């Protein structure tokens, strides 16, 4: 599967069969993201929450592709746990995660590992508004007078912001914690910088 491919699906070998997962079908995505008008969107095969993957059976997949998806997750640890759940032993997660220093997130503070684990334990609802406020201030550059109204609009729309941001150092810390603190059977096979992003390839071992 590829989650959230929109107009930019990962190129795969000719023999690969990819099902595209998103929280909306293509027509709804066009309404939600008018900035993508005119761009060809993939046909969504499975309407599902990419963090939950509730429609995907345990141990049923060879690959999970999540390009520029993890930063949109309210609970990235839950998402990565579900990636492990749906993969067979030997299955691969292909991640591309932007480095905040080279994107519109440049002025935002990095997300700490403690923050991620707190949201994972307590639920992300407690910090959700603060993420939108940070986005409004430091990405959309809304002044204080219009801040609350802008945040209310984004939250009402359930707009898919970058909830969390990382540099390579924090991403490495997160990937290491998958084994040491979550006991997920992932080996980090590759972590490489690719211009403004980092590519991580994780392989699921035997549980």
Distance between the termini: 21 Å
Radius of gyration: 17 Å
Order of helices and strands: EEHEEHEHHHHEE
The profile of the biggest β sheet is: 4 strands, mixed
Mean pLDDT: 96
Q: Which key terms come to mind for this protein?
A:
207 residues; alpha/beta; 4-stranded mixed β-sheet; 3-stranded parallel β-sheet
Describe this structure in words.
The structure is a single chain. The chain is an alpha/beta fold and 207 residues long. α4 (125-138) packs across α5 (144-157). The strands form 2 sheets. A 4-stranded mixed beta sheet has the order 4-5-7-6. The chain has helices spanning 26-32, 76-86, 113-122, 125-138, 144-157, 168-180, and strands at residues 2-3, 20-22, 46-47, 61-67, 87-98, 186-194, 197-204. α2 (76-86) links the parallel β4 and β5.
Summarize the structure.
With 207 residues, the protein is α/β, with parallel strands linked by helices. Helix content is 33%, strand content 21%.
Topology:
Layout: E1 2-3, E2 20-22, H1 26-32, E3 46-47, E4 61-67, H2 76-86, E5 87-98, H3 113-122, H4 125-138, H5 144-157, H6 168-180, E6 186-194, E7 197-204
Parallel strand pairs: 1-2, 2-3, 4-5
Antiparallel strand pairs: 5-7, 6-7
Helix pairs in contact: 4-5
